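Module 6 notes. Inverse folding takes a fixed backbone as the condition and produces residue identities as the prediction. Think of it as a translation problem where the source language is geometry and the target language is the twenty amino acids. Below is one complete input and output pair. Work through it position by position during the lab.
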C-alpha cells in the first residue's frame, strides 16, 4: 500500500467522565477521521461507520456534527437499529478529505441497569469503513472501547427535626 493512502479511524468519547447514576442520560460521540494524505470516497450505499452498542440501554437518534473537510456531508445518514449504529453514504458519494476530513456522530444513552456499559459490546466492533471498501495503509485501527460505569441512584434527604 502506498503511504498516500487514506487512514480512517473512529474515536469514541462520553460526556460524563466515565461515571453516571442510574436514571440519568449521557452522550456518546464517535468521530470518524481521515489522517492519510489521500481522500477517502465512499460511493452511495457504502457504510462509513459501524458501532455495535451494548444492551442494557436505550438510545436516542444520532446526529451528525462537527463536519470538517468532507464533500457530500449532506449524504451522511446515521441510524441506530438492533443496537448497531451505522452511518452510510445515502443519495450521493461522501469524501473525507486527506489529512483532515472528519465528522462526528453523537447520540444520547439512557442506561437501564447498574454496572459497566462498554461500547462496543464484547462481541461487537466499532470501525470506520467496516466493509473495507477503501484501501487504507492501516486496516486494523478500530476504535478503542469506551466504558461508562452506571452507579445506583441515591436519594439523599436531609433530616429535619422540629
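Target side of the pair, the amino acids:
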Amino acid at each position: 500500500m502506498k503511504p498516500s493512502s487514506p487512514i480512517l479511524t473512529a474515536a469514541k468519547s462520553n460526556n460524563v467522565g466515565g461515571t453516571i447514576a442510574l436514571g440519568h442520560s449521557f452522550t456518546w460521540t464517535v468521530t470518524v477521521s481521515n489522517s492519510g494524505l489521500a481522500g477517502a470516497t465512499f460511493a452511495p450505499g457504502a457504510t462509513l461507520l459501524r458501532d455495535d452498542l451494548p444492551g442494557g440501554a436505550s438510545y436516542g437518534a444520532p446526529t451528525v456534527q462537527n463536519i470538517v473537510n468532507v464533500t457530500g456531508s449532506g449524504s451522511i445518514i446515521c441510524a441506530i437499529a438492533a443496537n448497531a449504529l451505522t452511518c452510510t453514504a445515502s443519495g450521493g458519494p461522501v469524501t473525507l478529505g486527506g489529512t483532515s476530513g472528519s465528522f462526528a456522530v453523537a447520540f444520547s444513552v439512557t442506561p437501564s441497569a447498574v454496572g459497566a456499559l462498554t461500547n462496543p459490546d464484547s462481541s461487537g466492533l466499532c470501525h470506520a469503513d467496516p466493509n473495507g471498501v477503501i484501501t487504507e495503509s492501516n486496516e486494523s485501527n478500530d476504535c478503542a472501547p469506551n466504558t461508562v460505569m452506571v452507579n445506583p441512584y441515591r436519594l439523599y434527604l436531609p433530616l429535619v427535626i422540629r
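Reference fact for the lab report: The chain has a mean pLDDT of 93.
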